[in-house]
Amino acid sequence: MNLIKPHKLQRGDKAATVSLSWGGAGDPDFLWRYQAGKERLESVFGLEVVAMKHTLKGSQYLYDHPEKRAEDLMQAFADPDIKGIFSCIGGEESIRMLPFIDFNIIRANPKVLIGYSDTTVAHFMCLKSGISSFYGASVLAELAENIEIYDYTKNNLEKTLFSDEIIGEIVPSDYWTSEFLPWLAGNRDIVKKTKKNSGYELLQGSGKAKGRLIGGCIEVLEMIKGTILWNKSDFDGSILFFDTSEDKPEPKFIEYWLRNYGSQGILQKISGIIWSKPYDNKYYQEYKVSIIKIMNELGLVDLPILYNVNFGHTEPMCVLPYGVNAQIDCDNKRFSILEAGVT
Prior knowledge:
Helix content: 25-40%
CATH architecture of the largest domain: 3-Layer(bba) Sandwich
Order of helices and strands: EHEHHEHEHEHEEEEEHEHEHEEEE
Strand content: 15-25%
Strand order of the largest sheet: 6-16-15-10-11-12-13-9
Number of domains: 2
Structural class: alpha/beta
Distance between the termini: 17 Å
CATH class of the largest domain: Alpha Beta
CATH topology of the largest domain: Glucose Oxidase, domain 1
Number of helices: 9
């Protein structure tokens, strides 16, 4: 899995926003939230932000027209003036874009694409096209965070997307939150309550495990299995990353899904797993029990698994570049990305 890395972003670059799943960015009640995220991209990172043709058409229109979402994505990749693509938010059905995707356009125009949750689908479109993309902050959530972007999120965006230096160690955040404040304009100046973070936990394994990063939101990956985006060999030798969403799936589903990865022979060929902090810390202990249970069933008791890593649906978050070499240092409970994410 040798993916083409995009060029780094620079101040003054033009960046597109896309609504690939839920179209709330254009709904009247949430447009203020989109504008806040757009302003942060401009003021904090110095980008020139443009919405694609259908980005702000609203949730009902975009639900009815997955082909228009795909059209926006294709045009954003094809436009040489656009250097980066930022997903507005996740959702639950961006897989419906699949019939309308031209993988040749993506392959011919490698550039930064970033988002998380249901944007996992778009990341696997990039993967199939042979280019690297980035599991990280979205416009409506983290970039439009009340008051300001969390420093941890901002710093990880800068060193991953705006620098061609080796990314290096991803230290745990000192704090976390998944408190949800309704997206009302009147709430925009309320600071979320944060809690002290306990750092990484090693569930099993020893020594150092190296591999190329691949993964995403574990629920969304279920929608991708069996499609043309799913290639078991892409996982060989990888460090697999799993993130659970605000749906807070019950531990039994974690067991069902991991058994499937085992039955496909995927878990037997990877180097290790990093697992995100669960939303609200719900099922924090139960997930660990379920993960270890399935590893025991599969005879994979030595597979390195690092838990409670700051990516995905809790804030703040780091950025994970697909296809880039990373390392789990089990003995010291450290996680590092061994290359630059961009050129």
